[in-house]
Structures are given as structure tokens and as C-alpha cells.
Amino acid sequence: MPEAQSVPDHGSAPRQGAGPRPVPGQDHPWVQRALTVFVIVAALWTVRPLGLSGQGLVVAVLLLINSVALAARHLPQDWIPPRLALVWLTLGIVTAAALIGVSSSGSGYLFAYFLVGHIGVRLEPRQSLTLAALCGLLCGGVLYFRLGPGHNLLPWVLGLTTGGPVLVGILNRSRQRAFAAALSAAESAERAARAEARTAVLTERSRIARDVHDVLAHSLAGINMQLELADALIDTGDLDRVREANQKAHSMVKESLKQAQWTVHALREDALPLVETLTAMLETSGHRDALTVAGTVREVPPRVTQNLLRIAQESLTNAARHAPGGEVQVELTFGAASTTLRIRNGPATRTVSTGAGSGMGLIGMRERVALLAGTITAGPVTEGPDAGGWQVEAGIPG
């Protein structure tokens, strides 16, 4: 009879307190093992004659071969190559038919039923049906032609039915294949979900890193420059300039706190109003009435809003550092399929403080835009009233 085969669970985490996954609709492995033991014990108890010489020795040898062949069905399928399995099962049904003919009584015919059922599980359908037919013909032929002393105890039609269990075995094999395919698909989906989750985590880490850079790197660098300037001016005794540097440092701290609030909103994915937030950002940077809005104002996706605000923040910080006193103009254009932000600053009108940036600002802008399938250009202004300044233009779909 067919047995339950456990399907290996590759690539998934071990389940606590659980054994091999049983195939739905089949018996548990211990049931099949108990049936095997029952068949062998029943044969030892009923098959006769048994002895150490003559017919009894032949029956004993055939009974041993049948018992080993039947017990081998519990070995994992990947332990026995297909060709060896074909030889083993062919030998099993031949010895099962021989046992029916040689023995004078007993339940030896059960070996044929159970082996044929397992053939349907172990071998391909074409091979299974061929061996099942061979088993039925051998067992039926032994009984029909009255070969051996036990032919009077069993009808020859019973021998033909020994090939029937192969159909149950083939059905169980199909169920196993379907279950294994479903399990493999589920494991593949789980691995894909894990990979996607890892990618999402890395993406989120990159976004947080950019936000931290935008808020802290520039703000702290500016505050540090003002404090260093104040330290240097103390030695000169110019207290007015010391106070001015100190006030600038305080002003930058307040600005950093506001930027930190924007960052917290962005990390929480709060839907900030783009126009109002951009206006407030310009005013706190000292650039009133610098925003021009074109097109029909509409709500854009939160991610687009967040990244446009970060690009504006980065551009305004760079303008304050590299072009202090220069005029800043910001244009926000709502197109049919995209939103474009252009920030242009004129040349510096005050002395530029020494010190270089981290170099991560423009890289962060490009990363933000690339993640949203947008475009960005950044470079010096070469003509017009803002010649000598700098312009950043970003367009993001949405």
C-alpha cells in the first residue's frame, strides 16, 4: 500500500515542536511503519512451511527478501537512485509472487499489495503501471496454473488484483508533487518578501541618513564656524563682532530646531502642505516674497513633498554658506504630470566664510530624485542678473 512521504522543507526556519510536514490527505509516517510491521509479523506468524532445509528454507529466504523489500519503502526517496529503486521494486514483486507459489499457507500475498502501492509512489506513472501489470500477471499466473502447494487456498483472480493499489500510489504521488510545488512557491514568496523587506530597510536607512545630513551637517557646520569666529574675535577685543557672531550662532540653533521639526514630520510621513511649508522655510531663511508658484496648485504625494522640501532646504543652506547676501528666487511649477522646483541664488554680496561642505548635499539630492524617477540639474548661472550664482532644478513625477 502507498505510504506517506514527508516533503523536505528547504530554506525555511525550523518550526519549534514540529516534525516533517505531512502531505495533506495521507497517513502519518508512523501509521505506515506500523502497517509494515504488521505485514511482516503476520507473514512470520502464518506463512508455512518455515525451516532450515528444503521447502522451508526457500520460504524463509523469500520471506526475508520480501520483508527487506517492504521495509526499504520507508527510506527517503533521495537515498535511492531511480534505477536502483526500479531494480529493488521489480525484485520485490517477483519474490512476492514466488512466495505465493512456494508457501502452502499464510498471508504472504500482502507483500505484493503493499509493494505495488509503494511502486505508484516511488516511480514514474509509466513504470509504475508496467510493474503493477507484471505483478498482477505473475501472481495471477502462479495461482491460475496451480504453481506451488498454496494455489488451492487463493483464487487466481486475487492474484490479478495485486496490481490495483498502484492507482492509489500514483494518486498519492500526485498529491505529494502538488504539495511540494505549493510549499516551494510559498518558500520562494517568503524569501522574496524577506529580500524586499531588507531592501526597504536599507532604503529607509538611506533616507534617514540623508535627512540627518540635511539637518545636522550644515547646521552644525555653520554654528561651529560662527563659534570659531567668536573665539578668534575675542583675542582682538572687538566685542561688537563677537556679539554678532554669537547672535548668528543662536539664530542658526533656532533654525536647526525648526529644521529638526521638519525632519521629524518627514520621517513620520506626515503630509505637509508643500506651498505653505516652502513659504515658511524661505521666510525663516530671510528670503521673504521669494516664492513664485506656477500652474494649478494641487496636493502631491507625501514622498514628493518631502523630497522637494529637502532639496529646497539643502539649496538654501548652500546659498547661505557659499553666497551670503545673494538674492534667492524659488519657482514651484505644478505641471500636468510632474512638479518642478527651481532654486536660484545670485552671487555673494558678503564675505564668504572659509570651510568646505561635506560634499554629500548634491549626492543626497540626486539620490532623492532618482528614487522617485525624477530629474535634477545643478550648476552655476552664467548669464543674466544672477550670473555668478547657482541654480538647482528638480522635476519629480506626481
Automatic annotation (TrEMBL):
<keyword id="KW-1133">Transmembrane helix</keyword>
<feature type="transmembrane region" description="Helical">
    <location>
        <begin position="30"/>
        <end position="47"/>
    </location>
</feature>
<keyword id="KW-0902">Two-component regulatory system</keyword>
<feature type="transmembrane region" description="Helical">
    <location>
        <begin position="128"/>
        <end position="147"/>
    </location>
</feature>
<feature type="region of interest" description="Disordered">
    <location>
        <begin position="1"/>
        <end position="25"/>
    </location>
</feature>
<feature type="transmembrane region" description="Helical">
    <location>
        <begin position="87"/>
        <end position="116"/>
    </location>
</feature>
<dbReference type="InterPro" id="IPR036890">
    <property type="entry name" value="HATPase_C_sf"/>
</dbReference>
<keyword id="KW-0067">ATP-binding</keyword>
<dbReference type="GO" id="GO:0005524">
    <property type="term" value="F:ATP binding"/>
</dbReference>
<dbReference type="InterPro" id="IPR050482">
    <property type="entry name" value="Sensor_HK_TwoCompSys"/>
</dbReference>
<keyword id="KW-0547">Nucleotide-binding</keyword>
<keyword id="KW-0472">Membrane</keyword>
<protein>
    <recommendedName>
        <fullName>histidine kinase</fullName>
        <ecNumber>2.7.13.3</ecNumber>
    </recommendedName>
</protein>
<dbReference type="InterPro" id="IPR011712">
    <property type="entry name" value="Sig_transdc_His_kin_sub3_dim/P"/>
</dbReference>
<feature type="transmembrane region" description="Helical">
    <location>
        <begin position="56"/>
        <end position="75"/>
    </location>
</feature>
<dbReference type="GO" id="GO:0000155">
    <property type="term" value="F:phosphorelay sensor kinase activity"/>
</dbReference>
<feature type="domain" description="Signal transduction histidine kinase subgroup 3 dimerisation and phosphoacceptor">
    <location>
        <begin position="204"/>
        <end position="272"/>
    </location>
</feature>
<dbReference type="GO" id="GO:0016020">
    <property type="term" value="C:membrane"/>
</dbReference>
<feature type="transmembrane region" description="Helical">
    <location>
        <begin position="153"/>
        <end position="171"/>
    </location>
</feature>
<keyword id="KW-0418">Kinase</keyword>
<dbReference type="Pfam" id="PF07730">
    <property type="entry name" value="HisKA_3"/>
</dbReference>
<keyword id="KW-0812">Transmembrane</keyword>
<keyword id="KW-0808">Transferase</keyword>
<dbReference type="GO" id="GO:0046983">
    <property type="term" value="F:protein dimerization activity"/>
</dbReference>
<keyword id="KW-0597">Phosphoprotein</keyword>
